[in-house]
Amino acid sequence: MMKTARAALVAGLLILMGSPVTVRSQGDGNLPHLKKQGTAYQLIVQGKPFLMLAGELGNSSASDPAYMRPYWPALKTMNLNTVLVPVYWEFLEPAEGKFDFALVDSAIGAARGHGMKLVFLWFGSWKNSMSCYVPRWIKTDAMRFPRARTADGAALEILTPFSTENMKADARAFAALMKHIRVVDSKQHTVLMVQVENEIGMIPEARDHCRLANAAFSEQVPPELVTHIRKNAGALAPELLAMWNKSGSRSSGTWEEVFGRSPETDEVFMAWQFATYTNFVAKAGKKEYRLPMFVNAALIRPGYKPGQYPSAGPLPHLFDLWKAAAPEIDFLAPDIYFANFKEWVERYARPNNPLFVPEVANSQSVANAYYIFGQHKALGYSPFSIESLEDPEHNQIANGYGVLRQLEPLILESQEKGEMAGVLLDSADQVEVVQLGSYTFTIRHEYSWKYAVRSGADTPRVGGMIIMRSPDEFLIAGTGIIVTFEPFASSGTRAGIESIEEGKFVRGNWKAGRRLNGDQSHQGRHLHLPGGAYGIQKVRLYTYR
Ligand code: DGJ
Predict the structure, then answer these.
(1) Hey, which CATH number is domain 2-219+260-385, 3.20.20.80, 3.40.50.300, 3.30.2350.20, 3.90.1010.10?
(2) Residue with CA closest to ligand 1 atom 8
(3) Ligand 1 midpoint to CA 310 (Å)
(4) Which segments of 1-149 are extended strands (E)?
(5) Is the CB–ligand 1 distance for residue 359 below 6 Å?
(6) For the chain, which residues make up each domain, given as ranges?
(7) I need a labelling partner for 102 at 20 to 30 A (CA). Which of 284, 472, 479, 505 fits?
(8) What's the CATH architecture for 420-544?
């Protein structure tokens, strides 16, 4: 620990002094990377797939290591294996070209000391649309680092993405960060991935109206975008295709000629520019150290228009623009603070976009994680402001992640094979039917059962995952669900429960607890994972006539 801190300090000083530093090459073959494994994308860390049971720190917590000190053990107690930590441009480059990596090193040291991994969040040009984290020397020099403007010309506290100077300054700082991470971490691989910027988007208007933006808006749409649209017309976001078709499916023209005059066109124009800028920053970073990189999106409140919500971020209807203009960004990720969690993850989990939820309201049920790991082969799950949760030993994260940690090797193995499913139920969605192997599973919210014990008047969100272990044996994990079974091809046969046992995995080995029968399986009719806690049950099925 001491040795590591000293090495980090020396490396930091060498960079500050501008001396040549001997570094390991990027290509030690062992860098964290994304790999398509069977039917899933997985994050490979030191040669093995890794499931991020994560949490994101509140925005200001990482600016003071002393403030964070008591929270690191609490995060460990909550069974996290990964923490998402901001890196603030204002601290990283307090004076132009002078870098200070103290906070970065402190986070790496703390994570290592607690046996956890990190995902860094680059609070660079934009943080929730705004440029509040850019250093003072940028904030106070609007001539050199121009601002976005509203239609009536008012300057905003937002760097315009149309300025090359802004983009280069950000890319230089980000490259310095990635270089430093390579110097201090290319052996231990504590840092797994990096988020580039944070919730990019234009607000309070759909587009920037600064001089540079206005000039770009009257130029021709970049031919690569039109080529992308033509080539992918069959798979394009319907919103984008409709705009293009409505304006005559043109292969050239200004933005308004190609997409029509509307706030949606303003948004498309901005998305292209934000993605181009972010790609430039990511590319400069990857040149130094090629970790997986992603962007996160503030989602759309129902009924809101571009500009009312942060316009042009990495949103589902803008996927084509982000994917075409930002090939260095490995995936786009949703920050989910709305109740319709399932709908949003369904829009982000795509064959060309692995699912990671970098932010979710920490009050939402951790059953969400069971659903995305089981159903969408997600890379990770991360409630926001994780350190602020009370009762780290017993809260729902500690409980839910505790069970997921036991299952981690099996989840990763099953993601690859595709022999797994996830379910998420609430008051609006109380039953799901899943087919796995030769059985059909009907999963119901426990409150739909008349004998269920209710914890209150509301119907809580519950869920779980089913992992197939052999044709007749399944592990079912989660909370608050009741599962019944039938043969998939039911030609008069029925499925019966041979046995159910509760249990846990201890160092990868199943340790059976009670054999659940009688009242606990409703006399052999169903499997029940009671609400209020997370658990695992192993069920063996058979068929009869
Ligand atoms: C989403 C942002 O990405 C976070 O940094 C934080 O501001 C949260 N919103 C607050 O809810």
Answers:
(1) 3.20.20.80
(2) 384
(3) 13
(4) 33-37, 40-45, 48-50, 52-56, 82-88, 117-127, 147-149
(5) yes
(6) 2-219+260-385, 420-544
(7) 284
(8) Sandwich (2.60)
